[in-house]
Each structure stands twice: as C-alpha cells, then as structure tokens.
Amino acid sequence: MPRTKLNPLPTVAFHILMALADEDLHGYGIMRAVAELTDGKVRLGPGTLYGSIKTLLEAKLIEEVDERRDDELGEERRRYYRLTGAGRRFAREEAERLAGMVRLARAKRIYRGAHV
Amino acid sequence: MSERVYRWLIRLYPRAFQEEYGAASRQLFRDRWNTERSFLARCRLWFDVLGDLAISIPREYRRPVSPKPVSGYRLSEAAVDAMPQHSLVPPFLALLTALIMGWLGDAPHVPLFIGYALLALPLTGGPLWHKRTARRHLLSLELFLEPDRIERKQAGCDLTLERSEIARIFEGAGGLIVSGPDRKMIWVPRRLNRYEQVREHLAAWMPIETPEPPEHALRVKPRYAVSFLVPSYVSAVLVRSPVWSVGLTLPAAIGLLVLSRAALRRPFKLPPVLIMFGPLAVLIVKNVLLFWR
Fold first, then answer.
1. Which chain A residue lies closest to B62 (C-alpha atoms)?
2. What is the pLDDT along chain B (293 residues), one digit of tens a residue?
3. Number of domains composing chain A
4. Interface size, chain A vs chain B, as Cβ–Cβ contacts under 8 Å
C-alpha cells in the first residue's frame, strides 16, 4: 500500500497510532484507548477500526504481534498490534505538521488556545 | 440475538474483509455488548455500529484489491511451548516391562537382558527423538489459504490441497485435519495464529466433522508395535534359554521392523495393557505352567 494514501494521515489512523504508542493492544483495547484519549468523542466502530488497521498494516506503520488472551475480557484469544519504528516516526511527523497548523492559526488570530 | 444480526450485517462487507477481519469485528462487537450493559449504552452501541457500517462498507468496496490474496499462518514460539507434550511414561513403562521380562524369563542372563532392552529401544527412542525434533518442526509450519486451496509449507514437507479434492475436514482437540486423496492430510493446529479465521474459511468449503472423543488407547506406529509385540510374545512363549531367546527375538525384531516400515505406515490404536503387560502376562502364565508340571 503506497504511503500516499496516508499523507495526510487520516484522523482515525492518527488516533490508532497514538493509542499504540505506549503498549501493544488488541482491537477492543485500541477502541477503548482512543475513546479515553478523546474524552469519549471518538468511538471507533469495528469496520472503521479494522479498515484503518488494515491500511496501517499494509503501510507497515503497525505490525501484528501475536494472539493471546486478555484476562479482563475472558478466554478468547485476541490479535495484538504494535507500533513499528516507521509508525512512530510517521506519527511524529504528523504531530509536527498539526502543530505547524496550530501555530499558523494562532498567527492569524483564529485560534487562541494553549501554545504548542 | 444482537450478535446474530451483526454477524449477518458483516456479510455486507467485501469477502476479503470478511475473511480477514470478520471474526475480529464480531469479537469487538461482543466485547462492547458485554461491557456496555445499560439500555442507553446498547442503543448507543447500535447507533455507532450502524453509522460505522454506512461509512466503512463503501470504503472497503473502494479499496484496491490486493494482487496476491494469500494469507500466511504460523505458530508462534509461545504457542509451540504451550502445546501439550508427548508423555514419556508409556515408553518407559515398556522399557521396564521388557527388563522385567528379561529378568523373569531365564534370569539373570546378560544376553537376554540386552536383547529385551534392545527390543524396547524403538518404543523408547522414538518418542525421545520426536520430542527433540518436534519443536523445530512445528516452528517451521506455515499455512497459506487461498479461495480454493490450502497449502502447507513445513521443513520440506510441502503439500497443497485443492478445495475440490478435499474429502473430509474434522476437528479434534489438537485442531483441524484437512484430509485429501492418498492419505494426504494437512493439520491446522488449534494454537495457530488466527485459528478461528482459518476454521471459518474451511467451514465455508464443507461441514467440519467433530468425531467422538478418542478411546483410552495408545496411538502407536505399527512398525514399533509389530517389532516389539510379536518378538515379545514369541520369546515369552519360547524362552527357556538365553540362546534361543536372543537368537529368535533379535532377528525377528529387526526383520519385522524392516518389513513393517514399508508395509505399515499409518498409526493405529492399541490398548496400553496389550503393549505394556501382554508379553509379561504370557511369560508369567508359561512359568506357572512349567512350575506346575
């Protein structure tokens, strides 16, 4: 999958990369982490979540680690995903791009929020 | 009921997406269903899911098709380590039985003792050798699923079965067995990554049989059984002198092993008592009769 599809990085994909920045997570774990990171504003449905995961896997920004149980959720085995080195760099570049946009908005007096 | 409806809705996605993420999507839906229990939370869940379907289904149909729709499935090291190990108790019991037979038969002749120990070697050595090589063998296993074929690559034992030539698929405790012509078989271990996905794929080809639980019997390679049992019974009946015993049993064991290697390849089940204690029982009865006479 060419990276051009991810340039600029879609919001959902960026949220997934952020959710995976600290630890390996399975699908439901990613969904919960994204909901927490966005104060419940973004609730990813299965189709959107796995569609984005597929795109990120194809671009090698995340990788599938293994299948294991999550003791909190019962006996079923789940696929876990991990952020790759390329994924971390890509997320950083995207964060810098977004920070640049915020600086621009501040310079134009459109945005008056916290400095970035 | 809700999960059934969602399962049906997943069929609206392209087949490739269903195969790759259908099971995971259902699992995610189930997780939310189990954790979001209030009426309002479940209404919100359905609202999210329907919105998600409306957005993601058209997007998945627009996704360019991957040029090579092949998936590789492997066993991780953790999965191999967690697999049940073959018990070494039966072969060691066999060895013990052989040694007791040697001692009881015309004790305590050294050649006889060595003869029986040699007889027991195929039974003890086989599982030990298997234990040593099994891990490496399992780690090399890789399965590829395509729309109309399944392929196994494993340390030189590559095998491809077309969907049309598959005779049976059955599921046991260890996983799935896909059985083709000429006794060709592909094993899909239960601990394979994405096992459920492989199972769903194969279930679409034909119904998966679930055989009765196995009887309490040992699964033995015929060549080991023949090379151990036949000489053991023969010598148990004939043994009076070490010369006769070793002279008969060793060539018989080697000959039968060579012959049965070519003729009998398929494992079969034998009651443990027949292997462990059969020759010993014959030997004891014979000695009692001799003593009586």
1. A51
2. 777 888 888 888 888 788 788 888 888 888 888 888 888 888 888 888 888 889 888 888 887 765 444 467 777 767 777 776 666 666 566 556 655 665 565 544 556 556 656 655 665 566 666 666 677 777 778 888 888 888 888 766 778 888 888 888 988 877 888 888 877 888 888 888 778 888 888 888 888 888 765 555 556 666 666 666 666 666 666 666 555 555 666 666 666 666 666 566 566 666 666 666 666 677 677 666 666 66
3. 1
4. 75
> Domain range holding A39?
3-107
Whether this prediction's pTM lies above 0.80 is answered by no
Enumerate the H helices of A20-45 as residue ranges. 27-37
Tokens linked to B185: 């078989």
Considering only CB atoms, which chain A residues are within 8 Å of B56?
A: 45, 47-48, 51
CA A20 to the chain's CA centroid? 7
How many residues in total does chain A contain? 116
Chain B residue closest to A70 (CA)?
Answer: B31
Examine residue A113 and state whether it is found in any structural domain, yes or no: no
CATH of the domain at A31: 1.10.10.10
What's the ipTM?
0.83
Report the candidate in B65, B210, B77, B120 with the shortest Cα–Cα distance to residue A54: B65
Domain assignment present for residue A70? The answer is: yes
Choose among A49, A53, A79: nearest Cβ to B194.
Answer: A79
Domain ranges of chain B: 2-62, 89-134+217-292, 144-203
Question: Which of B28, B57, B78 is closest, CB to CB, to A31?
Answer: B28
Q: Find the residue in B nearest to A52 (Cα).
A: B56
Which chain B residues touch A59 with a CB distance below 8 Å?
Answer: none
**Chain B residues touching residue A78 (CB < 8 angstroms):** 24, 27
